[in-house]
């Protein structure tokens, strides 16, 4: 929103008995006697795991730098909500920027409504985590709406600092806090949050199974989990993968936005089922976000947009160049804007 990192969207990955990096370094250093003799196939597996680990590090670095560069530009033009807006299907795309910002707020409300969150005082979430929080727009909105304590995590130091500053300016410093952390290894104990919120961060996750398991781990019994994310289309019966031209288009987008391989909404549903979560449901909101990317392109082509983009850096420029590819993906029904929600059993 995660130079070309091509980490597979494998749903279930085997666990190595040793840390891959430790095992590999010790072997290269000549300490083979400390470990069982490896076959050619096991040696190749260790080397592959080492490579994947390095790619994951590069991916996180690229994501952090992209958002360090681009978040200030985005805030200057679009405000503090760094996600799509929700529109009536077929709505005219030529609307005012203020209307687009209202559509971003509507996206939050529509997601809460789809998940069945109640506004009744006794049922409001009291503790919320915003996974991939950007500069804290959703965190502050949810904190105000529910009077909740909200924690946000991001890979970008700039985003965490800016989110904290904006929250303090709005009198929310004691209610909302942010930190740099990895969504695949969240810095929270088990069963901490009544609402686990992920608005357009799942697309950056190289290991979707680990991502979903972490969302479930930090969710308290009875908590709601909301995932809003970019996906590719569900595969048709008999298909084992996307078509070559579809893979090529997504590959170009991955290079620009620091994305690993994509997965489908059906993959997310299967992951949630494997964790025995309940009330799982999903929807394709692609028609409801259709005006968003054309609007972003129009603002990028204004004088303010062009000058801000040039100041922000090369990673932001590459992202801007990929925006027409996103529109193409939506028009071809390849890219899907999905919401997936569930509850953790009591």
Structure report:
- The protein has helices spanning 20-28, 40-78, 97-114, 137-146, 157-169, 208-218, 244-257, 265-274, 292-300, 303-312, 314-321, 323-331, and strands at residues 127-131, 149-154, 176-180, 193-199, 219-232, 278-284, 335-343.
- It is α/β, with parallel strands linked by helices.
- The chain has a single domain (66-344), classed as 3-Layer(aba) Sandwich (Rossmann fold), CATH 3.40.50.150.
- Strands 3-2-1-4-5-7-6 form a 7-stranded mixed beta sheet, sandwiched between helices.
- β1, α4 (137-146) and β2 form a beta-alpha-beta unit.
- α7 (244-257) runs antiparallel to α11.
- The longest helix has 39 residues, at 40-78.
- The chain is globular.
- The model is unreliable at 1-36 (pLDDT under 50).
In short:
The chain is an alpha/beta fold. The chain contains 12 helices and 7 strands.
Q: At the first level of CATH, what is the class?
A: Alpha Beta
CATH topology: Rossmann fold
Number of separate structural domains: 1
Task: Give the rounded overall mean pLDDT.
Answer: 84
Structural class: alpha/beta
Task: Determine the strand fraction and express it as a percent band.
Answer: 15-25%
Q: Uncertain spans, ≥5 residues at pLDDT below 50?
A: 1-36
Tally of individual helices = 12
How far apart the termini lie comes to: 33 Å
Q: Identify the CATH homologous superfamily.
A: Vaccinia Virus protein VP39
Organism: Kalanchoe fedtschenkoi
Pfam family, one: Methyltransf_11
Region (SAM motif III): 218-227
Protein name: Methyltransferase type 11 domain-containing protein
């Amino acid at each position: 929103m995660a130079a070309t990192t091509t980490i597979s969207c494998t749903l279930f990955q085997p666990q190595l008995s040793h840390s891959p990096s430790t095992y590999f370094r010790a072997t290269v250093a000549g300490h083979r006697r400390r470990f069982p003799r490896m076959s050619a196939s096991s040696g190749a597996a260790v080397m592959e795991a080492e490579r994947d680990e390095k790619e994951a590090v590069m991916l996180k670095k690229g994501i952090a730098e992209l958002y360090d560069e681009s978040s200030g530009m985005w805030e200057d033009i679009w405000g503090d909500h760094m996600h799509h807006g929700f529109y009536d299907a077929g709505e005219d795309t030529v609307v005012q920027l203020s209307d687009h910002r209202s559509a971003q707020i509507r996206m939050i409300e529509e997601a809460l409504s789809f998940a069945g969150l109640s506004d009744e005082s006794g049922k409001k979430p009291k503790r919320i985590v915003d996974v991939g929080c950007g500069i804290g727009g959703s965190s502050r909105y949810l904190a105000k709406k529910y009077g909740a304590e909200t924690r946000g995590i991001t890979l970008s130091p700039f985003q965490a600092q800016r989110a904290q500053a904006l929250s303090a300016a709005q009198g929310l410093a004691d209610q909302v806090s942010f930190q740099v952390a990895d969504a695949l290894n969240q810095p929270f104990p088990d069963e901490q949050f009544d609402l686990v919120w992920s608005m357009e961060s799942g697309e950056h996750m190289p290991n979707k199974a680990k991502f979903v398991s972490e969302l479930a781990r930090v969710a308290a019994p009875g908590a709601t989990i909301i995932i809003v994310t970019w996906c590719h289309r569900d595969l048709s019966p008999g298909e084992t993968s996307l078509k070559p031209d579809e893979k090529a288009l997504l590959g170009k987008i991955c290079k620009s936005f620091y994305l690993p391989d994509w997965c489908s909404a059906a993959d997310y549903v299967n992951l949630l089922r494997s964790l025995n979560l309940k009330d799982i449901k999903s929807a394709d909101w692609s028609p409801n976000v259709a005006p968003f990317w054309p609007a972003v392109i129009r603002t990028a082509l204004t004088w303010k947009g062009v000058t801000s983009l040039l100041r922000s850096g090369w990673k932001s420029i590459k992202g801007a160049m990929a925006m027409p590819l996103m529109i193409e993906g939506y028009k071809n029904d390849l890219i899907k804007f999905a919401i997936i929600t569930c509850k953790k059993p009591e």
